[in-house]
Design goal:
The protein is an all-alpha fold. Helices cover about 85% and strands about 0% of the residues. The chain contains three helices and no strands. The radius of gyration is 15 Å and the shape is flat. About 0% of the residues are buried. Keywords: Membrane, Transmembrane, Transmembrane helix. InterPro entries: DUF2065. Pfam families: DUF2065.
């Protein structure tokens, strides 16, 4: 459970840094989002999930 909460904390830190350091980039990305096809968004999300799982697997296996 501690690892899960640590992961959420890191997520919040990274999200906060994006909002604090590059709000204009975030705003432009939000404006572009509706123009990206749904299947491309889904594929990108699945790729990110897979990459995250692989990273955790390699880190925990080391």
């Amino acid at each position: 459970m501690a690892d899960f909460l640590t992961g959420i904390a890191f997520f919040l830190i990274i999200e906060g840094l994006v909002y604090a350091l590059a709000p204009s980039v975030l705003r432009r990305m939000a404006e572009m989002l509706p123009r990206i096809p749904e299947n491309q968004l889904r594929a990108s999300g699945l790729f990110a999930v897979g990459l995250g799982v692989l990273m955790v697997w390699f880190i925990r296996g080391a």
